[in-house]
Model the fold of this input.
Amino acid sequence: MRARDLAVEYETVSLDSEALDAARLMAEHRLPGLLVVDEQGAPAAILPASQMVKALVPGYVVEDPTLAAVVDERHADRLCQALSGRTVRECLSKTAPTPPIAAPDDTALEVAALMAEVRSPLVAVVDKDKTGVRLLGVITASHLLEKLLLATS
Done:
């Protein structure tokens, strides 16, 4: 199996997308994260769902988690309002690495090794040529496991 055969369409957002829309996309499709693309459509970052959840939590609670117990339910239920007016770029970690990228001809083992090395739940499959970069799709860890398990049956 080659990366091009394993790649599937996957939801992407731009750096300037609305954070609230990105959160809705994650929730609706139960995604572990979103692939963030730049203006040319090339992979720029991965926004993990855990990072989006962190963006909801007030800074003072991140610094002292015991304060979470004193926030009443009425306010806790409206945490997503913290994303209103923010962009995906603002929700990304300042140290967010570039997403792992596989070439179309990479084998399943090469993709698995890349995922393991960078501890990423997804890998972008990109075709590069003289005109630039073209995103072919994404391979998620769960999809890769499914395909590898089918091959052992």
